Amino acid sequence: MQVLTDISSAGRGQSRLWTGMEDGTVKKLIALVLTAGVTVACASQKAPAEMALKGLEQAVTAAKPEIEMFAADQMTGLTGAVDAAKKKLEGGDYAGVIADVQTVTATLSAAAQTAAAKKAELTTEWATFAALPAMVGQVTAKVTELTAMRRLPAGMTKTTVDDAKVSLDKVNALWTEASGAFAKGDLMAAVAKARDVKPLVDTLMNSLGVAAAAAAR
User: Fold this and answer.
1) 3-state class of 93 per DSSP?
2) How far is CA 76 from CA 59, 67, 69, 196, 215, in A?
3) Do residues 85 and 53 touch, judged by C-beta distance below 8 A?
4) Contact 94, 44 (CB under 8 A)
5) How many CB atoms lie within 10 A of CB 69?
6) Which of 31, 40, 87, 142 gets the highest tally of CB atoms within 10 A of its CB?
7) pLDDT digit string, tens, across residues 164-201
8) DSSP characters over 127-161
9) Which CATH number does 8-123 carry?
10) Global pTM?
11) Tell me: the pLDDT tens digits for 122-152?
């Protein structure tokens, strides 16, 4: 349950999860690619074309982890475009190489920005689940209390309590998976699991008569 207490610091920890755009690595590489492109355009030589393509490959490699995680649909096109530029270089089409490098660089920049925006969105959503640990704690305490009673309160049945135990086990299992994913930096999986947990907890609270306000405290 340790990771549960770390949710509220998700926004502050965002910078540790994004190692490309915020520290300027990808931006610097893209700038180098564009500079190399100007050289190619002027000299039309093999060496400058190779330098431009190499810079592009480095920029793609730096941005790849975040793009694959948060904008996966755009990664295939980038990889294919780089491969196409390589073939043009092998064929001696240096002007074609620089044209491709400039196009792919723009595409890469857009993909990196999309990935960064998605990551920020998911980080914000993850933070909205900050109250879940307290809610689960309230439900757990209520189940323990009801289980210890010889006579259940009016309107409460043994079946209801037994069902709550099963649901609570599922909640704990899902939250363990969500917390583990978050600890590994996999926000997509963490948020997906947390989305599954929230309605289960809400249902448990309603069926057991646990007040949301009490859980929030």
Assistant:
1) coil
2) 15, 10, 13, 30, 45
3) yes
4) yes
5) 19
6) 40
7) 999 999 999 999 999 999 999 999 999 999 999 999 99
8) HTTTTHHHHHHHHHHHHHHHHH-SSPPTT--HHHH
9) 1.20.120
10) 0.72
11) 999 999 999 999 999 999 999 999 999 999 9
